[in-house]
Amino acid sequence: MRILVAGGAGYIGSHTCVALLEAGHTVIVADNLCNSKAETLDKVKQITDKDVTFYKVDVTDEAAVDSIFATHQIDGVIHFAGLKAVGESVEKPLAYYYNNLVSTIVLSKACLKYGVRKFVFSSSATVYGENEVPFVETMDLLPTTNPYGETKAISERMLTDAAKSKSEFSVSLLRYFNPVGAHESGLIGEAPTGIPNNLMPYVTQVAKGKLGKLRVFGNDYPTIDGTGVRDYIHVMDLAEGHVVALDKLTSGVHIYNLGTGQGTSVLQLVQAFGEANGIEVPYEIVDRRPGDIAECYADASKAKRELGWTAERDLLDMCRDAWRFEKGYV
Ligand code: NAD
Ligand code: WQD
User: Does 100 map to a domain?
Assistant: First the structure.
């Protein structure tokens, strides 16, 4: 299939480009590079020895998106082109609503206009809010604590309504848990600008000596050791989940959790990082981070049952691959 990957130069998008190319698909990337670099796509080509067509385009620009659809006979769209920093979304809510909602509208409208039948959307476990773990796809969504999360919940509803309005248009809503790690080559990975918000890139930067000490946000949660529990998933498992979701997408709206189903605490992750890489990461316990929940992990059985997909890489693989990328990254 010929797949338009919006946001394909980013962290999850670039790994998904690799998985798509390796599965024999043709890849067209549209990315405005607001949080990525074009060189990442050169690395994708280096890994796969295959070509990628790249448009430096803002996918909220309807005319620019239309011209891509008019040029290529696209069979499916994967929409990664979102802004994703939770804290920043509280400071700049309108920028987040604009970018994340208008991009979804523009891309799905183009699909309807050009008869593109498959749309895969990057949603997030954050839409579950403070439901009871494990999160199951059938749960009612609860309000999230930030505009970022709201853009995901609203995009899910918009796409669901669009699919209802046109039976040929099928949508897969993929709710990611906590993507970490990097491609096994070490050539592509997560490279946040500035001080990382997320745990794994913070850990790798402490290990590299770029940052002093990990601050563990709270050890008084009702969890195994008091620290926050998350469902970390290797980014290549996540990428492969997209290829399967796209292949199997036939009709209607389908929601899948993409997680491992396994909860890991902050201290367990630090311990696993040490075990995988032989590096002890210094840390201190500090106050809870506002907006954090105690536990977040998936019931991952639906994706297994319906897509035949399960995450194959374990926490040690995630830590090893994240570190391999960080070591080589300048
Ligand atoms: P990322 O920032 O690395 O990738 C997003 C890419 O989209 C970037 O290359 C950016 O330049 C591009 N982009 C953003 N707005 C654009 C626009 N208007 N037009 C064109 N390109 C645009 O982020 P990521 O971690 O790869 O996340 C990809 C998607 O998955 C996002 O929608 C994010 O919200 C979602 N998601 C991420 C996580 C996570 O923890 N990384 C978890 C759940 C969901
Ligand atoms: C994980 C755990 C922290 C950093 C966020 C978004 C979510 C999704 C994924 C997009 C928590 C703890 C972290 C640090 C720490 N993104 N922590 N010290 O918060 O689960 O999810 O990214 O959809 O929407 O909210 O991920 O990696 O920030 O935190 O102790 O320096 O690590 O408290 O328990 P989170 P995270």
Answer: yes
